[in-house]
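Quick one:
INPUT:
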């Protein structure tokens, strides 16, 4: 039975020891599992440390990803959005996608698309430096570098049969509009660059390119540790650059997350509705599972989401489903943070805290209902 909804979970491709350039952040060569494994309890009510029920596995291993694809698809997650990086004139952390997911024998069960995580890379990933803020790699690229990136995306990924498309157009999400615009030399230059990208995609045999923006609050704050400051009108940039749709990456980007999940969800739904009204492009509802990035820092951070139990997440997913049902003229896409953002405490993978609770919440909302409607 074909699933009615496209439930897309972001994938943070850092759980592997096969990226040599990542050893400066995680010298034990297990990727960010090094940080997860050493997380400590910091305050009363802290839900860390947590343990992955699947173990500290290498997600660049196709056998491991075959298991994860089955687990995801069996619970109603049928799209992965891979965070994709380009630093210092070459790709970074492609191994989990190229060697894990794309070499898994069952990857036809899952669609995937890319979100260019074009933020600066700083020492947030290295707990030994713990928030010093030093930029390791600049996320901005100039036009020649941008064109190299586009050629790589078209030739390597867009033509794959399980690359996620809307109306035949490959979907490509951009995380940091500020870095994109500043790197390309302003809004007009960026518009020309994106128009060139669209033309290249059409010349490659597609009906077009579906550009998606990862939105922030209009007055967003940088508290996740890896994000550029907002130096422009987001709404104007999305309009001028001709983005086809929008979603979010994390609640932390647009609302106060230092509260109970039941308190923040009404504000989240209001934000969905505001964007749909103000931006005049399809908005795909987003559900974040949690926020607590204390595992990445030596000090204790107070911005922590509470009450994000599987039962509350199930309610949020139902709200996202209701939103999709109320907008039948757009793709039935819902984004979820995330498949494996362990060090931000927002992941679907089973753990020692809730077991398979989050995955079961997805299944209960999207698969069982789909079965009843079939």
């Amino acid at each position: 039975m074909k699933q009615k909804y496209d439930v897309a979970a972001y994938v943070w491709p850092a759980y592997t020891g096969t990226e040599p350039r990542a050893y400066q952040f995680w010298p034990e060569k297990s990727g960010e599992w090094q940080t997860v494994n050493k997380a400590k309890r910091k305050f009363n009510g802290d839900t860390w440390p947590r343990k992955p029920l699947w173990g500290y596995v290498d997600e660049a291993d196709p056998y491991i990803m075959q298991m994860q694809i089955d687990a995801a698809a069996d619970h109603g997650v049928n799209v992965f959005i891979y965070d994709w990086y380009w630093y210092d004139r070459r790709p970074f952390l492609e191994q989990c996608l190229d060697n894990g997911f794309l070499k898994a024998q069952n990857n036809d069960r899952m669609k995937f698309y890319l979100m260019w995580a074009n933020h600066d890379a700083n020492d947030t990933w290295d707990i030994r430096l713990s928030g010093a803020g030093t930029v390791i790699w600049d996320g901005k690229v100039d036009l020649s570098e941008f064109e190299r990136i586009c050629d790589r995306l078209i030739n390597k990924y867009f033509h794959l049969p399980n690359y996620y498309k809307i109306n035949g157009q490959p979907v490509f999400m951009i995380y940091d509009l500020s870095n994109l615009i500043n790197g390309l030399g302003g809004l007009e230059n960026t518009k020309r660059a994106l128009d060139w990208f669209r033309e290249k995609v059409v010349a490659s045999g597609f009906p077009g390119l579906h550009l998606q923006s990862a939105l922030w609050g209009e007055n967003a704050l940088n508290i996740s540790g890896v994000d550029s400051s907002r130096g422009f009108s987001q709404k104007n940039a999305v309009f001028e650059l001709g983005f086809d749709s929008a979603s979010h990456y994390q609640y932390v980007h647009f609302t106060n997350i230092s509260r109970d999940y039941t308190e923040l969800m009404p504000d989240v739904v209001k934000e969905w509705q505001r964007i749909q009204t103000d931006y005049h492009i399809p908005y795909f509802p987003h559900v974040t599972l949690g926020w607590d990035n204390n595992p990445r820092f030596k000090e204790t951070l107070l911005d922590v989401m509470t009450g994000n139990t599987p039962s509350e997440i199930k309610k949020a997913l139902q709200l996202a489903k209701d939103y999709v049902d109320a907008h039948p003229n757009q793709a039935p896409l819902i984004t979820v943070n995330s498949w494996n953002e362990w060090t931000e405490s927002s992941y679907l993978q089973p753990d020692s805290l809730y077991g398979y609770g989050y995955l079961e919440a997805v299944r209960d909302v999207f698969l069982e209902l789909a079965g009843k409607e079939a």
